[in-house]
Amino acid sequence: MSSADLKNVTNFNYGIEKIFDKAEDFLPINGTDYVELYVGNAKQSAHYYKTAFGFQSLAYAGLETGLKDRTSYVLVQGKIRLVLTTPLSPDSQIAEHIKMHGDGVKVIALWVDDARKAFEETVSRGAEVYFEPMVESDDSGEVVRAGIRTYGDTVHIFVERKNYLGVFLPGYEKWTSEYNPEPTGLKYIDHMVGNVELGGMNKWADFYGRVMGFANLVTFDDKDISTQYTALMSKVMSNGNGRIKFPINEPAAGLKKSQVEEYLDFYRGPGCQHIAVATDDIVHTISEMRKRGVEFLYVPGTYYDTVENRVGEIAEDMKVLKELGIMVDRDEEGYLLQIFTKPVEDRPTMFFEIIQRKGARSFGKGNFQALFESIEAEQARRGTL
Length: 385
Hints:
Structural class: alpha+beta
Strand content: 25-35%
């Protein structure tokens, strides 16, 4: 490991240690409650995520439950709840969102003990209101929710469910299905990455710091994340307990169009670029997902010629990792394994990262070069580089 890399790792770990001091306590968050995607056909999207990713049926809301404007399917795997929502009329806000952005993340819901207080604290610090606190109830109890806006059309909803015992939320019924492929081993959401416009990174990093009490965990500039042709900059924002991590990316000047610029062009503005989900056995998870048709970025075979010298001894068989295209990186706390899917819709926008942490708390800086070259190869195939 070079002296520069060692310095970066040391700074990163110092940031982890100091985050409890820097992140304020006015907005305690227990974790990610759910992620809601607006999609063109929720029924078919649910089938895809069950088949390809191993999600299980959990809950449903639609015409049969009294909804007249939309249908939602809720999927679960480990601690991950994925809500897929589609409009039932062409003139709804959901339909407009899909027309503008294609399938993508609308809601990043945060599990809190007091939704009213979370709303008041953030709005008093400058958050724009999405909706004010509301109580929803049924025979299983009540849930309090409130929402604020963040980058682009993305929103955060605070969810307080301590007085609720139902399957998901009031208005949803249990979704029983005979078709439930085996899970692939996904456990929880590790982080979610937002792409914003040039000049927007500091604005939204400041938003998460000032409005939500997050701390800047680590910063990557265009020297850290670049190739011969493209570059980007990123700031990773984290809440106090480290359960919520939001890297914020913006494009940097380069000879060709960067992945962030491509995303912004096709998503028509800022939005969630990718969802990183954790597993305890990435070899099993990726083996299963590949069998089920999930497509991953190609990692050049030359990447593995030097990886052992860079990361040292690991428990996994490097030959198997190479066959599956899984990358490895190390920091002072341990190492991580990661891989990235291709976009999961026709627009080259949202994708998934699968990550296994074996002590490491960083984000795979040592893999950035190979990752970006792989993304650029896909951009070249699409004619958008």
